[in-house]
């Protein structure tokens, strides 16, 4: 009996060592340097943040905020009086 437990322990140890050796190349492929796509994504995020900052600065200078949008009706001077009542 004690020999069977030792064989099982050795088999498990060898199996774990084999899995560790197989996983090692996957870890080796990881690099800390960014790929060109990651660099491009980072640049797009920075550009968008810069544009948003400029937009907010412009809104602040003009005294407008996004919370109170201005409603523009280009036809307001072209409409007559209240036409909801039908005249007979």
Gist of the model:
By secondary structure, this protein is mainly α.
Explain what you see.
- By secondary structure, this protein is mainly alpha-helical.
- The protein is about 60% helix and about 0% strand.
- It contains 2 helices and no strands.
- It has helices spanning about 1-30, 35-60.
Low-confidence stretches: none
The string of secondary-structure elements, in order, is HH
What is the mean predicted local confidence, pLDDT? 79
Quickly count the helices.
Answer: 2
Q: Helical percent range?
A: 55-70%
Largest sheet: none
Strand content: under 5%
Query: What's the overall geometry?
Result: elongated
Give the N-terminus to C-terminus distance in angstroms.
110 Å
| Strand segment tally | 0
Radius of gyration: 35 Å
Structural class: mainly alpha
């Amino acid at each position: 009996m004690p020999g069977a437990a030792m064989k099982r322990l050795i088999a498990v140890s060898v199996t774990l060592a084999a899995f560790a050796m197989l996983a090692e190349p996957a870890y080796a492929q990881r690099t800390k340097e960014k790929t060109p796509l990651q660099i491009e994504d980072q640049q797009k995020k920075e550009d968008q943040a810069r544009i948003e900052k400029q937009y907010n600065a412009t809104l602040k200078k003009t005294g407008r905020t996004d919370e109170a949008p201005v409603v523009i009706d280009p036809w307001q001077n072209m409409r007559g009086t209240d036409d909801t009542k039908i005249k007979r």
